[in-house]
Amino acid sequence: VQLQASGGGLVQAGGSLRLSCAASERTFVTYGWFRQAPGMKREFVAHIRSAGNMIIYADSVKGRFTISRDGAKNMVYLQMNSLKAEDTAAYYCAASRRGKVGILRETDSSYEEWGQGTLVTVSS
Q1: Bridge partners of residue 49, in order along the sequence
Q2: Alpha-carbon separation of residue 114 from 4, 15, 20, 90, 98 (angstroms)
């Protein structure tokens, strides 16, 4: 298993959760978080490079979510605050051994490794 995601759960609207993604190798250059709600396409949430820079967010989560990277522990986190019912989804961490530019950072098909989903349910 290359990526292991955890931290999902049930939370009330306005609450917070922190998702974690443990990587089993240190060759990944970029990481992303994506989510997929029932009946919906998988969508981009956030991106970070292994150095902890080049952070970008989907407009829907800007100001509420924070992606971060702990190189020593080889972990990537997604701190989610002010959660809304529409944030309910299975969240997936993804990683790539190739650097990305532009829209490819937000494109799920450009990542070659995926963790299992962790379910986030926000009750209103």
Answers
A1: 30
A2: 8, 26, 13, 13, 14
CA nearest to 21, candidates 33, 37, 5, 32: 5
Q: Which secondary structure element, helix H or strand E, spans residue 119, and what is its range?
A: strand 118-123
Cα separation, 63 vs 72, in Å, equals 26
Output the tens digit of pLDDT for each of the chain's 124 residues.
799 999 999 999 999 999 999 999 999 999 999 999 999 999 999 999 999 999 999 999 999 999 999 999 999 999 999 999 999 999 999 999 998 888 899 999 999 999 999 999 999 9
